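I am writing to request your help with a piece of structural work I have in hand. A protein sequence and the structure tokens that stand for its backbone fold form the material at issue. Please examine both parts with care and let me know of anything in them that strikes you as inconsistent. The record follows directly beneath this note.
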Amino acid sequence: MADELILDYEDLYLLHRHYINLTCIDSGVAAIKENGGKPKRYNFSAFVVNVEGVALAITAGHIFSDLKQAITAGAKLSDWAIDDSMTSDHGFPAYPIDVNLERDVVFFDEDGLDYGAYLLDPMALRALNQSGIVPIEEAQWNAEDLPDFPFWTLIGLPTQFATLRHAGPSIKNHVTVHVTSLHDRPTGLKDMKHPRLFARVEFESVAEWGRHFDIGGMSGGPIFGTRTPPQGSSYDYRLIGIQSSWDERENVAMCAAQPFLRALVGLVRSVHGCGGKSTE
């Protein structure tokens, strides 16, 4: 293998097959006024993980926190759905789901903790499986060898590259971009009580763009790690983090995925019993 690690289409598909968008419509007065008299569609980056046999959509906690604040201010959310168009071009509408922010969601949004999880019902998971979406398994998120996978890749949907319609199909151009781990916190990102991971966005790694773009909207997207070359004949990867924030220049902050998912293990066991339930 060459000195430079290049992920080809098949490699990237293994990462993309975990990625989804959560979407909903806001028909509140403020949203309609802001959107030229029409309801406004929201879109969030997320990914699917298997925790103790339970399938969860994982995203950034501030997304759910912001939505609850919006509801308090008059937002009217409806038409929740999962969009799997990153992986599948099947032409069907986004899969409708029921989301109750008080019942179906666990999230943290406090001083560096930025985690959110939504429980996928079996029918939603079956529909996603048929489109090629599969949960990240424990072998990828709960391993002890994360330092052996230092080539980081962030997946998400920048709002800049999306035309979100309240009715009919939306147009989305998702991005997969290489990010380089940083040892120290960039000055443009706030110091938080709880530790976070930091990285520099390598914009030139996006061949079809090749220069700085606005990554706003990628919050909640997964950061995967792969080995540096030579990797060998078998492609392997690990889930590293969850995109949280950026300094609007070139640096991002993310929350390590493993501590949150390990904490969810206890929650799932307390609700579903020691064995969890099947994701089949």
